Amino acid sequence: MIQKRITVFAPATISNLGSGFDVLGIAIDRPGDMVTAYRQRAPGLSFSVRTNHANVPAEPQQNVAAHVANLMLEEFQPPFGIRMVLHKKMPIGSGLGSSAASSVASVVAVNGLLEKRLKKSDLLRFAVEGERMASGAPHADNVAPSLLGGACLIRSYSPLDVISLPLRNSVVWVVVHPRIVVRTEEARRVLPAHVPLESAIRQWGNVSGLTVGLSSGDARLIGKCVEDVIVEPLRAHLIPGFFTMKQSALDAGATGCSISGSGPSLFAVAASMAIGRRIAAAMADACSHAARVPCDVYISKVNTRGATILRKG
Amino acid sequence: MIQKRITVFAPATISNLGSGFDVLGIAIDRPGDMVTAYRQRAPGLSFSVRTNHANVPAEPQQNVAAHVANLMLEEFQPPFGIRMVLHKKMPIGSGLGSSAASSVASVVAVNGLLEKRLKKSDLLRFAVEGERMASGAPHADNVAPSLLGGACLIRSYSPLDVISLPLRNSVVWVVVHPRIVVRTEEARRVLPAHVPLESAIRQWGNVSGLTVGLSSGDARLIGKCVEDVIVEPLRAHLIPGFFTMKQSALDAGATGCSISGSGPSLFAVAASMAIGRRIAAAMADACSHAARVPCDVYISKVNTRGATILRKG
Known about the structure:
By secondary structure, the first copy, chain A, is of the alpha+beta class. The first copy, chain A, has helices spanning about 65-75, 100-115, 125-135, 145-150, 185-190, 195-215, 220-225, 230-235, 240-250, 275-290; strands at about 5-15, 25-40, 45-50, 80-90, 150-155, 160-165, 170-180, 195, 255-260, 265-270, 295-300, 310. Chain A has 2 domains: about 5-165 and about 305-310, Ribosomal Protein S5, domain 2 (2-Layer Sandwich), CATH 3.30.230.10; about 170-300, GHMP kinase, C-terminal domain (Alpha-Beta Plaits, 2-Layer Sandwich). In chain A, strands 1, 2, 3, 4, 5, 6 and 12 form a 7-stranded mixed beta sheet that branches. In chain A, strands 9-10-7-11 form a 4-stranded antiparallel beta sheet, with helices on both faces. The relative contact order of chain A is 0.19. The interface of A and B includes residues 153, 156, 193, 201 and 202 of A.
C-alpha cells in the first residue's frame, strides 16, 4: 500500500551507560523527537521545524533530519518529493541523543514513504550520517538504540558492527536532565588520547559485567558495572552539582549512577518503579539546590521497540 | 564422613581470551594438575612432587601448591597434619594456568580433608595467593575458572569480584602449546602503562560482544570478539611462528585465534569438533614448520565442572 503521509516517533537514548563509553546505548520511553512526512509532487525536500527550543537549526543544510532525508532521496531517487516537518521536542546538547532521535525519525519516515522499503537495520547507515553532521563523527551508540530499540552494542566502527544485546527488561532507568547545555564537541575535548592500562582493564571488566547484568535484569550488577573510571572523572566538572546529584541518587536507592551520553543528563539504575520514583525526586531536588537549574525527569524501562510509526495514511 | 585421603584434578584454563585481558578465563578439559592429600598425625604439611617436567620446584617454600595448603592449615588449625603429593602434569610457563591448576588442586584437596568444609567459591582467596607467589600479583583469571569451571569474569580485583558468566557450551576450543617457555613476568614486562583510548574502546566493545557470544554459544561472534588490539600485538613476537600458526588456524576454519594467558600457547575458536580437529592439525603442522618446536594439542568444550574430586576414602 502506498503511504502518502507518515508520522514517526524516535526515542531518546542513554548512550555510554558509564563503562560502555562509545559502544553501548539503550532506548528509553521518553523524551523523543517526531517527524511527519508527506509525499509531494515537487521533487526534493521541503523542510520545516516546529519547536519550543532555542538553537534548533531550521535551515535544511544545517539540520540533521533534513540532511539524512536528502541522502536517502539522492540514493533512492523516488518519483516524488517529500515535505517534512520535524517536531523537535528534545533540547540540543542534553546527553540524551537529541540529534540521533531527529535523524532516526527522519530516516524511518522517509523509508515509510518509499515504494520499496528497507529493513530498519539497513537504515542505520543513513542515520549515522546525521551524527557525523552533528558532532563530526558517525557515532552509532545513540542512533542504533533509537532506531532498533533495546540495548545495542557498537562492537566496531570499521566496519560498522551493531549487535542487539540480550535483555531482561526489569530494571528501571531514571534520567535527570538539568537544563544546561553540554556540547558533545566540548565533552569530547576533555578526553585524553591515552588512558592507563589498569583503568582500561577495570573498564572492560565492568563492560562485561554490564552485558551480563542487562541480559539477566540484575539491577545490582548493572549498577555496580556502570562504574566509569575513565570518562566520568574527566567530564563530571562540566556538569554543575554532578557529585551531589549522583550521591542523592545512591542515597535514595540507586544501584548505580553516571553521565548519560556526554551530559549534562545523568542516569540512575533502580530495581523497581517505586525506587525509581524516589530516586528521581531526590535527584531533582539535588539539581535545584546544587546546580540551581530546573530539570526534566524521565523514568522508564528500556524501550524495546525503538522508532515507531504513530500514524500513516 | 571423615576423609582420610583425597585426590583432586584441577583443569587448565585459557585466560584473557584475547580481548578480555586480565578479566576473563575459561576452564578446559585437559591438561590439568592432580593433588593427592592424606591426613597424617604429625602436624603441618609434608610435601612432595611427582613430575616429568623440569623446573618444577620441589621445595614447599617455593611451590604454590604447598604455599596455599600451608595458608589453609594456618587459618583453620585442623587437629591433624597433611601429607600432599602434587602430580605436576602441566609444564610451567605454558600460558594455560599451570600454577593456578596446582594451587586449585591443593586448596580443594585440603578443603576435602577438613572437618568443616568451605564452599568452592570461598576457596578462591587461598588459591589466588598461589598466583601472587608465582607471578607477584594475585591474578584470579586462571584460578577462578580452574576452581569453579565454566567462564569467569574477574570484574574487580579490589575488592575481588568474580562472576560466573552465562554459558551456552557449544563452541569448541583448540589449544596448541608449543614446547617453549614464556614466563609471565617477561610477558608482563612488554605491557605499556598507557594505551590509546581508541584501542581501549575497541577492546571493551569486543569484550561485551565476547560476553554475549559465550552466553549464546555463537562461534562466529566469539571468534571475532577475541580480537585483541592491545596486548597480542605486543606479545606476539615472544612466540616464534605466532602469525603463521594463527593464520593456519583461520585458514582451517577457526572463527578467531589469539594467545592463551601470557603464551606461548595459542587458542582457536571452532564451531564444531570436526572443524576443531582440522584446526588443531593445521596449527600443529604450522608449529613444527614455523616455530620448529614440538607442541601439545588439546581440543575441548568449556569444562563446566572445574576442579573435581577423583577419589576419596
